[in-house]
C-alpha cells in the first residue's frame, strides 16, 4: 500500500503490481534491472541526488503560501509593457484554471483542436482589427521577442542594402535589449535614436513605440513615409488597449505591428507568461514567423480551422525557417481573445477610456500642483519631471502602496490602467506632494481612431456571464486534451499537470507582481527562483542555470550565444560551424542560424545513432571553424546512444563545445546528468519534464544550464553576456511555482522513480506492439528509452494506408495521435510517460492492434483502398448518423471500433481537414458568418 500522503504515487500511473506485470512483458524482474540494462554505464549517475526529501501536497501548499507571503503586492503603476488588469472570473476559472484548456497540446491534429483553433482565430482577429493590418499570428513569446522577430522579418523583406536597424529612443528598454541580442550575431547594427531629430542615415528597418515608453503619443505617419521612400520597413510596437482609441498602425502605413496582449486579462505574473503578438500588412504573410491559424474545409466541405502555411516553420524549414519559435503562448492568447469576446468593442472602449481618463485626471492634479510633465499627448502614461527627486517620489509612492518608475534621477513614469482607482491617483499625488484636483474636462481624444473594430458577431454575442461560460464550454468540448485521455506524443512528454502544482499560479502574490517591482517586494519570488535554479543544476550536473528563456527554442539560442561568447572571449572569432545530426528537432538548426552559426548536418547510421565516421569526417573538414555540436540525448530516435561520451570527447578535442538538447530529460532525471557526461550546455523544457502544462501550444519555460566556464554568459549575468533573451528578467516567472512544486513533492526518489516508470512504459508499449508494427530503433539489449518509434513505412508501401490515416483513425478510438513523421517520415513516435496507468496503456495498445487488423483488412481486399475506416477517419457523429450510408463497412465500425464503450465517446467535430485548400485560400481572421451559408 502506498501512503495516501505520497504525491509520487499520484503522479506515477502504474501501481507496483501493474509495474510488475509490465516488467514481465518487457522481460525484467525489477525497475532497477531494467534501468541498468537500458542506460549505458558510461553516463550512469549512481550517487544520491542532493535535493530535499519529498513533501506532501499539503506541506508544499503551505510552503508556497509562505513564499507567497514574502512577495508584497503593491498597486503597479510602473507600466513599461506590464499593466494591472482584471481577469474576468469566468475566464480565470474556465480557461486559466481549467485542464480542458491548459492540458491541451499544440493543434497539429486540427480535427481534435477546433475549440482552441477558433479561440486563436479570435485572437488573430483582435490583433488584425486593432492594428489595422492584414494578418496576425497566433501569439509570440513576449513583446520583446516579437520586436526582435519583426526586425529579422524586415531584414528578409526590405530591399535596402543597409545593415542598420533604427530604433525609437522611446522604446521599452527590454525590447531594445532583446533586439540588440538578436541583431549582434546576424551582423545587424542597431541605432537607438531620437527619431524626430536624428533619423538622418540609411536603414533597412525602423522600430517605433506607440505610445512611447514615456507615455508620449506621437504621429508617426510622416516618418513612415520617409522610411518607405528609402525602401525600409517600419514596425510599430503598439499597445493593444491604446489602439482601441488611437489611430491604428495600418492606418498610418506600418508594415508590421508587434506588442503584448497582457493587459487583456492576463495577470502580470512577475513578467510572464503573456501572449506577444505580431501582425503584418498584405504581402508579408508568407514571411511571418510563428504559428498561424487559418480557415479551411473538411472532407464534407464544412468549415474547419487548422494551422496554415506551416512550410515557413522550423519543423519543416529547419535552418531556412523564418524563426526558431515553436512553443508560443497559446493559453494566454486564448485568455486575451476571450477578454475581447467578453467585453466586446464597447467594453474595451470603456476600459481604454477609464485608463485614459485616469491618466488625464492624474496629470491635471500634478500640473495643478506645479509638477512639470514631459508628455504632451498621452494615452494612459505620463512622465513627470522632478529634478533630482525621482527616487524620493518613487519611495514615497511605495509607502502609499503604489509602485512608480524612475527613468533616471529626474523623471518618474506613472501608468494608469483598467484597475486604477481614485485612491491610487490620490496616493500618487501625495507622493509628489501635490493636493490634486477634483475633476477634469476629458474632452476629445487627439489622434483618435476613426475605424470600427471587432465587428464580427463573436465579439458582440457572449457578454453575459452565462453566455460566456457556455461559449468556453462549447469550445473546450470540441477538443481533446489530457483530461480526456492519453496524448502519447513523442518528444513532447505529455505527463500529469497536477492540480496542486497549478494552484499557486493564480494566487495574487504570484500573479499580480510587476517584473520591475523593487527587489525588496519580491523576496518570495527570489527564493523560489533561486531554489528552482539550484535544483535544476543538481538534476543536470551543471554549475549554473537561468530560467529566463521562455521556451525551449529561447534556451537553445541563449545556450548557443553563450558558446559564441566563450569562443570570442578566447580570441576564436572564426568558430561558427554548428554540427547538427540529421535527426535533430527543427528548432536546433533554426537557433544555430540565429546565433550566427553555419549548420553542418551529421548523418545518422542505420541504427539511428550519430554516425561517428561521418562525425570524424565533418570534424576534420571544419576543425578550425568548429563552434559546437548540438545533439539531443537520449536521441530524438528514443534511444540511449552508448557513444555519447566518446562523441563529447571528440568534439572537445576538436576545440568545439557540446550542446545537449535536454528536452528529453524525462529519460535521464535521477539516472544521468548531461553536465557530468561531457556536455557544456543544455536547455531543459519545464513544460515537458517538469509538469508545466502545454496550454495548447504554450506557455513554456526553457531554462539554459551551463558548466562553470560558460556561466558568465548566461543572459543578464555578466559584462560579456547578452543582456536579455526574453523581455522579463525571469521570463515566465508566474508559472515557476509548477516545476518548483513538482520537484518538491516528488523528492529525489520520486523523480528517479518517474524516470524509471517512463522508460518502463515506453518499453511496455514497444514490447506489446512490436509484432504489429516494427520498432524502428533500439539501443542496449533491444531496449528503447522513454519513447519508441513505430515504423509504418512497410505497411504504407504495401497497402497505401498512411501514418496520417492511422493518426486520424486513433481519434475514432478515443486517442490523440502520437508524434507523426518526426524524426523519421512515415513513422509514429510514442511517448506514454510515467503518468499513464496500465489500463490506459492497454487501451492504447489495443487500439493500435485493432488498427493493424484494419490495415490487414485493406491489404486483403476486404475493404477498398479508397473506402475504409482508415482513409475516412475521423468519423463525425453527423456522418455516422446520416440518413444515407454508402460505405463498405458498417456504421458501428466507423463509430465504435474495437468494441469501445459508446458512453462518453469523444466525437471529432469535423472530418479530415484539407490543409492545402486553406493555404491556397488564406483566411486568418474570423470570416463573416454568411461566408459559410
Ligand atoms: C520540444 C522540443 C524543443 C523545442 O522546445 P520549445 O519549447 O517548443 O521551443 C527542442 N528540442 C526538442 C528535442 C524538443 O522535443
Automatic annotation (TrEMBL):
Signal peptide, first to last residue: none
Per its record, what are the GO molecular function terms?
Answer: glycine dehydrogenase (decarboxylating) activity
Source organism of this protein record: Hamadaea flava
Q: What is its EC number?
A: 1.4.4.2
Q: Does the keyword Oxidoreductase apply?
A: yes
Q: Which residues form the Glycine dehydrogenase C-terminal domain?
A: 754-875
The name of this protein is Glycine dehydrogenase (decarboxylating)
> Which cofactor is recorded for it?
pyridoxal 5'-phosphate
Gene this protein is translated from? gcvP
UniProt-listed HAMAP family: GcvP
- Does the keyword Oxidoreductase feature in the UniProt annotation? yes
What are the residue boundaries of the Glycine cleavage system P-protein N-terminal domain, all occurrences included? 10-432, 461-717
UniProt function note: The glycine cleavage system catalyzes the degradation of glycine. The P protein binds the alpha-amino group of glycine through its pyridoxal phosphate cofactor; CO(2) is released and the remaining methylamine moiety is then transferred to the lipoamide cofactor of the H protein.
Amino acid at each position: 500500500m502506498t501512503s495516501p500522503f505520497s504525491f509520487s504515487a499520484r503522479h506515477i500511473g502504474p501501481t507496483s503490481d501493474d509495474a510488475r506485470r509490465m516488467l514481465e512483458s518487457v522481460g525484467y524482474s525489477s525497475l532497477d534491472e531494467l534501468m541498468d540494462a537500458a542506460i549505458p554505464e558510461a553516463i550512469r549517475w549512481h550517487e544520491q541526488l542532493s535535493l530535499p526529501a519529498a513533501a506532501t501536497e499539503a506541506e508544499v501548499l503551505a510552503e508556497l503560501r509562505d513564499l507567497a507571503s514574502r512577495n508584497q503586492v503593491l498597486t503597479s503603476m510602473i507600466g513599461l509593457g506590464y499593466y494591472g488588469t482584471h481577469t474576468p472570473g469566468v475566464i480565470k476559472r474556465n480557461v486559466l484554471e481549467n485542464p480542458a484548456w491548459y492540458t491541451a497540446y499544440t493543434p497539429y491534429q486540427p480535427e481534435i483542436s477546433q475549440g482552441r483553433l477558433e479561440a486563436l482565430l479570435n485572437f488573430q482577429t483582435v490583433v488584425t482589427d486593432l492594428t489595422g493590418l492584414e494578418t496576425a499570428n497566433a501569439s509570440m513569446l513576449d513583446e520583446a521577442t516579437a520586436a526582435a522577430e519583426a526586425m529579422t522579418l524586415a531584414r528578409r523583406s526590405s530591399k535596402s542594402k543597409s545593415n542598420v536597424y533604427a530604433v525609437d529612443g522611446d522604446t521599452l528598454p527590454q525590447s531594445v535589449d532583446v533586439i540588440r541580442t538578436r541583431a549582434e550575431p546576424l551582423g545587424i547594427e542597431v541605432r537607438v535614436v531620437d527619431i524626430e531629430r536624428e533619423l538622418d542615415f540609411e536603414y533597412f528597418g525602423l522600430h517605433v513605440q506607440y505610445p512611447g515608453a514615456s507615455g508620449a503619443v506621437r504621429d508617426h505617419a510622416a516618418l513612415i513615409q520617409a522610411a518607405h521612400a528609402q525602401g525600409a520597413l517600419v514596425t510599430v510596437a503598439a499597445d493593444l488597449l491604446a489602439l482601441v482609441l488611437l489611430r491604428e498602425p495600418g492606418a498610418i502605413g506600418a508594415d508590421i505591428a508587434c506588442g503584448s496582449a497582457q493587459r487583456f486579462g492576463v495577470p502580470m505574473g512577475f513578467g510572464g507568461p503573456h501572449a506577444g503578438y505580431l501582425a503584418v500588412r498584405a504581402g508579408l504573410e508568407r514571411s511571418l514567423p510563428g504559428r498561424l491559424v487559418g480557415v479551411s474545409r473538411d472532407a464534407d466541405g464544412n468549415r474547419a480551422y487548422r494551422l496554415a502555411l506551416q512550410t515557413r516553420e522550423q519543423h519543416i524549414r529547419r535552418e531556412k525557417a523564418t524563426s526558431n519559435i515553436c512553443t508560443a503562448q497559446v493559453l494566454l492568447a486564448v485568455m486575451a481573445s476571450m477578454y475581447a469576446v467578453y467585453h466586446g468593442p464597447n467594453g474595451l472602449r470603456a476600459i481604454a477610456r477609464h485608463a485614459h481618463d485616469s491618466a488625464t485626471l492624474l496629470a491635471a492634479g500634478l500640473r495643478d500642483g506645479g509638477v512639470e510633465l514631459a508628455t504632451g499627448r498621452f494615452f494612459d502614461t505620463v512622465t513627470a519631471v522632478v529634478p533630482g527627486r525621482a527616487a524620493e517620489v518613487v519611495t514615497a509612492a511605495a509607502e502609499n502602496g503604489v509602485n512608480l518608475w524612475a527613468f533616471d534621477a529626474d523623471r518618474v513614469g506613472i501608468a494608469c490602467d483598467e484597475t486604477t482607482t481614485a485612491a491610487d491617483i490620490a496616493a500618487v499625488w501625495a507622493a509628489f506632494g501635490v493636493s490634486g484636483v477634483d475633476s477634469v474636462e476629458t474632452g476629445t481624444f487627439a489622434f483618435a481612431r476613426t475605424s470600427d473594430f471587432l465587428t464580427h458577431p463573436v465579439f458582440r454575442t457572449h457578454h453575459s456571464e452565462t453566455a460566456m461560460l457556455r461559449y468556453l464550454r462549447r469550445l473546450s468540448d470540441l477538443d481533446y486534451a489530457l483530461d480526456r485521455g492519453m496524448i502519447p506524443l513523442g518528444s513532447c512528454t505529455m505527463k500529469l499537470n497536477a492540480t496542486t502544482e497549478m494552484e499557486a499560479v493564480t494566487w495574487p502574490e504570484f500573479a499580480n507582481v510587476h517584473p520591475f517591482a523593487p527587489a525588496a517586494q519580491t523576496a518570495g519570488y527570489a527564493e523560489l527562483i533561486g531554489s528552482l535554479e539550484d535544483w535544476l543544476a543538481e538534476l543536470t550536473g551543471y554549475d549554473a542555470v537561468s530560467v529566463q528563456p521562455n521556451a525551449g527554442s529561447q534556451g537553445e539560442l541563449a545556450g548557443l550565444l553563450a558558446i559564441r561568447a566563450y569562443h570570442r572571449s578566447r580570441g576564436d572569432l572564426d568558430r561558427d560551424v554548428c554540427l547538427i545530426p540529421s535527426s535533430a528537432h527543427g528548432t536546433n538548426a533554426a537557433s544555430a542560424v540565429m546565433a550566427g552559426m553555419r549548420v553542418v548536418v551529421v548523418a545518422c547510421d542505420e541504427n539511428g545513432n550519430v554516425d561517428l565516421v561521418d562525425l570524424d569526417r565533418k570534424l576534420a573538414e571544419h576543425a578550425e571553424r568548429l563552434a559546437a555540436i548540438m545533439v539531443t540525448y537520449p536521441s530524438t530516435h528514443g534511444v540511449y546512444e552508448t557513444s555519447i561520451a566518446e562523441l563529447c570527447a571528440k568534439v572537445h578535442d576538436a576545440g568545439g563545445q557540446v550542446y545537449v538538447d535536454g528536452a528529453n530529460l524525462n529519460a535521464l532525471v535521477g539516472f544521468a546528468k548531461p553536465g557530468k557526461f561531457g556536455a557544456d550546455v543544455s536547455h531543459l523544457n519545464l513544460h515537458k519534464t517538469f509538469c508545466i502544462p502545454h496550454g495548447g501550444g504554450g506557455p513554456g519555460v526553457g531554462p539554459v544550464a551551463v558548466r562553470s566556464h560558460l556561466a558568465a554568459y548566461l543572459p543578464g549575468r555578466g559584462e560579456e553576456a547578452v543582456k536579455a533573451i526574453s523581455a522579463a528578467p525571469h521570463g515566465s516567472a508566474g508559472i515557476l511555482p509548477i516545476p518548483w512544486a513538482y520537484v518538491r513533492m516528488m523528492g529525489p526518489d520520486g523523480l528517479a522513480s518517474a524516470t524509471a516508470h517512463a522508460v518502463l512504459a515506453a518499453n511496455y508499449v514497444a514490447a506489446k506492439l512490436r509484432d504489429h508494427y516494427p520498432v524502428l530503433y533500439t539501443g542496449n539489449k533491444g531496449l528503447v528509452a522513454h519513447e519508441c518509434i513505430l515504423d509504418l513505412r512497410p505497411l504504407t508501401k504495401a497497402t497505401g494506408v498512411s501514418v496520417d490515416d492511422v493518426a486520424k483513425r486513433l481519434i475514432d478510438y478515443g486517442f490523440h495521435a502520437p508524434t507523426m513523421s518526426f524524426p523519421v517520415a512515415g513513422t509514429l513516435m510514442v511517448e506514454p510517460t510515467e503518468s499513464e496507468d496500465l489500463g490506459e496503456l492497454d487501451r492504447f495498445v489495443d487500439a493500435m492492434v485493432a488498427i493493424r487488423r484494419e490495415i490487414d483488412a485493406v491489404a486483403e481486399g476486404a475493404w477498398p483502398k479508397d473506402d475504409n475506416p482508415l482513409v475516412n477517419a475521423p468519423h463525425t457523429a453527423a456522418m455516422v448518423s446520416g440518413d444515407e450510408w454508402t460505405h463498405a463497412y458498417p456504421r458501428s465500425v466507423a463509430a465504435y471500433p474495437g468494441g469501445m464503450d459508446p458512453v462518453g465517446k469523444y466525437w471529432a467535430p469535423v472530418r479530415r481537414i484539407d490543409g492545402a485548400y486553406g493555404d491556397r485560400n488564406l483566411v486568418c481572421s474570423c470570416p463573416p458568418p454568411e461566408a459559410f451559408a
